Amino acid sequence: MSNGMTQTPSMKWHKFLVNFALWASAVLTLLSAFQMLTGSQYGTEDVIRRVYALYEGLKGADMIFGVLQIGLAVFLIYTRFQLAGFREGAPGKLLLSYGASLLVSVGYSLVVSSITHLSVAEVTSGSLAASIAAGVAMIIVNRNYYQKRAHLFGEANGGAAASAGADVQATQSNGQSAQWNGQNAQQANQSPADKVRFCTRCGKKADPDDQWCTGCGTKLD
Question: Which pTM does this prediction carry?
Fold first, then answer.
């Protein structure tokens, strides 16, 4: 801006992610996990039994990727709260969640294709390429979006703040050390005559720690 003031960046996309998109992604991921764990994506119970009987190893693959989907859903919810709280590193976790989702989707398609000896396009009904393109686009868009707002998550000035705190602590430590050194120097430079006292009544020399004159018993100042 021409007046030198920093304009507050728009947070509409951030609010959309926090209040809707990540919740929806977590729910859809859990639904996908449920289908994989139960085999319901294949249809009725009779069809499920025939599919698993025909393709050995497919049920095991569904179980493994179903568990992975549950873990991914939990991570999406965790990322949502990290973003909502403007925690340091939260944007990175968002990108990681999109990357993990993409890897799980591609990995599942490849494994099923290998087990069933069908092409990846047949397994995914031709939607894998679109899913990959959408996942990559989300990673790029969110990376650029949160790079411009890194200061809100402590990523841009966290190191400077830590350095400033260390400088303040060092300054305080040096000041306190200088004060102690000054007191020690003052005591070290004090002549023995300054420490000697004499009784005001009889004039007898008194030791620095004496409270009473050892000659006449007068209380010393």
Answer: 0.67
Question: If pLDDT is split at 50, 70 and 90, which confidence band does 22 have?
Answer: very high
What residue has token string 């549950």? 70
Amino acid identity, residue 125? S
pLDDT at 126: 80
151 secondary structure, DSSP code = G
Dig out the tokens for 185 from the structure.
């120097």
The Cα–Cα gap between 48 and 50 comes to 5
Within 8 A by CB and 6+ apart from 20, the residues are none
- Which residues 6+ apart lie within 8 Å of 100 measured at CB? 72, 75
Q: Does residue 165 carry a pLDDT above 50?
A: no
Which SS3 state, helix, strand or coil, does residue 24 take? helix
CA distance 41 to 44: 9
Instruction: Judge whether 72 and 101 are in contact, CB under 8 Å.
Output: yes
pLDDT reported for residue 198: 79
Residue of 25, 37, 149, 140 whose CA lies nearest to 75: 25
Angle of helix 128-147 versus helix 90-116 axis, rounded to 10: 170
Q: Where are the beta strands (DSSP E) in 124-181?
A: none
Q: Which residues on adjacent β-strands are paired with residue 206?
A: 197
